[in-house]
Amino acid sequence: MSQELMLKYGCNPNQKPSRIFMQDGGELPIEVLNGRPGYINFLDAFNSWQLVRELKEATGLPAAASFKHVSPAGAAVAVPMSDTLKKIYFVDDLELSPIATAYARARGADRMSSYGDWVALSDVCDKETATLLAREVSDGIIAPGYTDEALAILKTKRKGSYNVVRIDPDYRPAPVEHKDVFGVTFEQGRNELKIDEAMLQNIVTENKELPEDAKRDLIISLIALKYTQSNSVCYAKDGQAIGIGAGQQSRIHCTRLAGNKADIWYLRQHPKVLGPKFKEGIRRPDRDNTIDVYISDEYMDVLADGVWEQFFAEKPEPLTREEKRAWLDTQTGVSLGSDAFFPFGDNIERARKSGVQYVAEPGGSIRDDNVIDTCNKYGMTMAFIGLRLFHH
To answer: With 80 as the cut, is the pLDDT of residue 212 above it?
Structure first.
C-alpha cells in the first residue's frame, strides 16, 4: 500500500498531471498487482467495488459487475445458469465456480457494452474466473484477493499488461466526500443507504404478491442503480441485470434503452438465434456483433448484401418481426428498478412489453396515481421505496 499513485494521465491524454491519493495522508486501500491502471480505470474500479460489496452483503451470494465509463453494463450474483444461458454467454465449455458464474452472468447481460470492461468481484478471484477472463477483451479487475493460479493467468493477459488491483475489503471511507468541479469543491455525506428487503414493504398496487426471487432481483436492480449514472433504469431477472439504461435526460428514454437491451438478452435465447453455426476462427466480439445484427430489423439488408457469408457457415433463416414479438410475449417475471419516480405511465407500458411484473421506484410524483393505475391494469406489483438513488 502507498499514500499516492501517479497515473499516466486523467480522463484524456492532455489532462496532466494525474494521481490518486488520500487527503488525510493515510495509505491508499488498494495495491496494483499488475499493469498500470489509469484515471478512468480507477473510477470504474471504486464504483464497481462498492456495487459488488453491497450486492454480497444484501444477498449473501458472490457478486460481480462489468463496468464501462463509470456505469455497469451488467451486475449479477451467483445463481446457477441454465444450459441456454451458458451457451449464449460462451461459457458452456468451462467449469464455473460461484464467483465465475456471477461474472459470466454480469458480462453476458450486454456483451457488446462489456467489450473492454472493468471487472469487479466481491470474492477472491479464483482459477475459474481468471480462465474465463483470459479469453475476453477486458481492461482490468478489482477484487479483495487472488489465488496464485488466478494471478498467474491474469498476468499473461494483454501481453502482461492487464490491470490487476487488490482492494482491502475492510476499508471504509470517511462519511463525508468531496469532489472539485470548475475549481469549486463540492461536499456531501456519502450515500450509505442500505438497500434490502425492508425497502420493498410499501406495496402500492392492488397486486401485493412479491415472491422471494423478485425481491432479490429488485434489490439487485436498485443496488446497480445506486452506482449507475443518472437518470437510470434497470431490468433484472434470475439474479442478474438484463438491461441497464444510464445517463439519459428523460426517464422514458432510460426505460426504452434498458428495455431494448433486455429484449436482446431474451431474443438471444430464441431457438433460431441459438441455431446458426459460425465459421471457425470467428472471434467472440465478432460473434456478439453478428448476433445483435441477426436479431435486428436490419438483418434482411445484411442478407441481401451477402455479409452473412463472412461469419456464418450456412445462411441463417431470418427471425421475423412477428417471431420476435411472439417470443418476447413469453418473457415473464422481470423486475424493474428506477433511480427516481416514474413521471408517467408510459414507462410502465414500455416495461410491460419486456415482461416486467415487479417494479420498485421512489414514488413522489404528482402523477403517482396514473403510474399505479397503469400497473394495476396489467396486474403488476409495485413498491415505493421512498428514496431517490441519483448518482452523478
So the answer is: yes
Whether 12 is catalytic:
no
Instruction: Report the pLDDT averaged over residues 349-368.
Output: 95
Q: End-to-end alpha-carbon separation of the chain, Å?
A: 29
Rounded distance, CA 212 to CA 218, Å? 10
Which runs of E-coded beta strand occur in 342-384? 356-361, 381-384
Give the chain's length.
Answer: 392
The confidence score (pLDDT) of residue 221 equals 97
**Tell me, what DSSP letter sits at residue 249?**
S
What stretches of 6-120 show up as alpha helix (H) in DSSP? Answer: 39-59, 83-88, 98-108
Q: How far is CA 319 from CA 189, 268, 373, in A?
A: 50, 11, 35
Q: Distance (Å, rounded) from C-alpha 64 to C-alpha 223?
A: 12
Q: What is the DSSP string of 15-35?
A: --S-EEE-TTS---SEEEEES
Question: Can 391 be counted among the known catalytic residues?
Answer: no
Contact 177, 391 (CB under 8 A): no
Q: Which of 69, 87, 272, 353 is catalytic?
A: 69
Asked if residue 307 has pLDDT above 80, the reply is no
Per the DSSP assignment, residues forming a β-bridge with 44 are none
Catalytic residue, from 231, 237, 261, 270: name it: 231
For the chain, what is the radius of gyration of the CA atoms? 21
**Type of residue found at 242:** I
Average pLDDT of the residues of the chain: 93
Q: Catalytic residue at 315?
A: no
Q: Report if pTM > 0.85.
A: yes
| Domains by residue range for the chain, with CATH | 20-176 (3.40.140.20), 193-267+328-384 (3.40.140.20), 271-318 (no CATH)
- For 267-282, b/e burial (b = at least 16 CB within 10 A) is bbebebbeebeeeeee
Residue 270 bears catalytic tag: no
- The Cβ of residue 334 has, within 10 Å, a number of other Cβ atoms equal to 25
CB 103 within 8 A of CB 127: no
Which of 211, 321, 195, 331 has its CA nearest to residue 259?
A: 331
Active-site residue, from 34, 47, 68, 127 = 68
**What would the mean pLDDT of 136-160 be, rounded to a whole number?**
97
Q: In the predicted model, what is the mean pLDDT of residues 257-265?
A: 95
CA atoms within 13 A on the CB side of 99: 23
